[in-house]
Amino acid sequence: MAKKKKAKSKATKKKATGRKSGGRSWRDTIKEDYAKKQERSRGDYWNFPDGQSTIRLLPFTHEGDEHVFVETFTHRIEEGDATRMLSCPQAECPICELAESLEEDAARGLRPRRRYLANVIVRGHPDELKIARIPVTVHDRMLDYLEGDESEFCPGGLDPKKGHDFRISRTGKGLRTEYACIVVKRPCPVGLEVKPVDLFDRIGYAKEEALREAADKLSKLYE
After folding, report:
1. Among positive and negative, which fits the CA dihedral 48, 89, 43, 110?
2. What is the pTM of this model?
């Protein structure tokens, strides 16, 4: 019996590693799969990279009113080694309902994370418009400069000719990621003719079936 088991194992190994002459190895194709996974996780949004970035906020028009930011909420679901992001509709969300039924320590990880979307030009990449995900801390700091106690350092606001850029630094990884945001005091023009996107048209929520499925799986962890 032991010999048969060994022979079967060898045959399986040959099948798993064999490939036609000139064909690509699994390591080549797995790189493509990983790149596709990264692209899916980023979606159409630009995220602040490690280090320093300089951006210009661009207001957009929605139903006759000018806006700069759009608020979004996202559930971060850990599934083994993978992370699944589900946009929360806020109302009648199965994951939020599950969180409300749990003790505070357990519920904290299930509540949606607040983020903001904004049209930006990333200095150093002036060829196209980016839709950026703005962390809460960066968003609040920008508000301080645009309208709050430190608006004296940003007198031009977001004027296309005499407005100001923002410089954001990102350090750390995962839950230890930290952001710092300062205004560039010297005013400058946008410098690029682009039409900002109506971000209210870009907000999409996860399907109810996906939210329900995730909530059912999570609930079994707390039974």
Report:
1. positive
2. 0.71
Name the H helices within the chain: 2-17, 26-42, 94-100, 104-108, 136-146, 208-221
Spatial distance between the Cα atoms of 41 and 197, rounded to a whole number of angstroms: 21
Residue 184 to residue 164: CA distance in whole angstroms: 6
* Exposure string over 117-142, b if 16+ CB within 10 A, otherwise e: bbbbbbbeeeeebbbbbbbeebbebb
pLDDT of the residue at 33: 61
Beta pairing partners, 73? 114
Task: Classify residue 3: in a domain, yes or no.
Answer: no
Overall residue count recorded for the chain in this entry: 223
pLDDT digits (tens, 9 = 90+) for 76-92: 887 777 778 888 988 88
In order, the DSSP letters of 46-98 are: B-PPSEEEEEEEE-EEETTEEESEEEEEEEEEEETTEEEEEE--STT-HHHHH
Task: Tally the domains of the chain.
Answer: 1
CATH of the domain at 196: 3.90.198.10
Find the angle CA(37)-CA(41)-CA(47) to the nearest 5 degrees: 130
- Residue 200 lies in domain: 44-218
Residue 21 lies inside a defined structural domain of this protein: no
Strands 69-79 and 178-183: unpaired
Q: Across all residues in the chain, what is the average pLDDT?
A: 82
Contact between residue 42 and residue 85 where contact means Cβ atoms under 8 Å apart: no
Which amino acid is located at 30 in the chain? I
